[in-house]
Amino acid sequence: MSTNIITTEGHEALKKELDHLWRVYRPEITQKVAWAASLGDRSENADYQYNKKLLREIDRRVRYLRKRLEDVKVVAYSPEQEGKVFFGAWVEIENDEGETMKFRIVGYDEIYGRNDYISIDSPMARALLKKEEGDEVVVHTPTGEATWYVSSISYGQGVSTG
């Protein structure tokens, strides 16, 4: 089960997606279904079949988004977070081999399509919570333990590399 928290930006993105699906995309597909249905025999009408399926997928996503938006708690930035890793932080880490990674710790609903976001529920995020710059972090992964060092922590509003 995932943690039901989300950043302010993530919450806005879900609301925007829901609004677009409901006000723009769904009416567009509904029109296509009506047009395809008007052509007659629906059993062999590929346009009708495809768009009807698409409509079901849109409706499923709309239901999911409405439910999630009710269930998630928006966690906004707080000045007390400065200097330590908490939800919403951009964190840069480095290992002994000199490899570096930079990512933002966000809610489960925010990670899709972003390779610079990780879920608060991931082993890496859990290990980093409450750490400060310079701290050593041991991450327990399915392949064993990995040691990282916290290089930088920021909460820059609007910092985005995606």
Question: What does this 3D model show about the protein?
Answer:
There is one protein chain. The protein is α/β, with parallel strands linked by helices and 162 residues long. It folds into 2 domains: 5-74, Helix Hairpins; 79-154, Chitinase A, domain 3 (Roll), CATH 3.10.50. 38% of the residues lie in helices and 22% in strands. The chain contains 3 helices and 7 strands, in the order βααββββαββ. The protein has helices at residues 8-37, 46-71, 123-128, and strands spanning 5-6, 73-74, 90-94, 100-106, 117-119, 136-141, 144-154. The strands form 2 sheets. The chain has a 5-stranded mixed sheet with strand order 5-4-3-7-6. A two-stranded parallel sheet has the order 1-2. A hairpin with a 2-residue loop joins β6 and β7. α1 runs antiparallel to α2 (46-71). Residues 158-162 have low confidence and may be disordered. Belongs to the GreA/GreB family. GreB subfamily.
Largest sheet: 5 strands, mixed
Mean of residue pLDDT?
A: 91
Q: Enter the CATH topology name of the largest domain.
A: Chitinase A, domain 3
Helix-and-strand structural type: alpha/beta
Radius of gyration: 21 Å
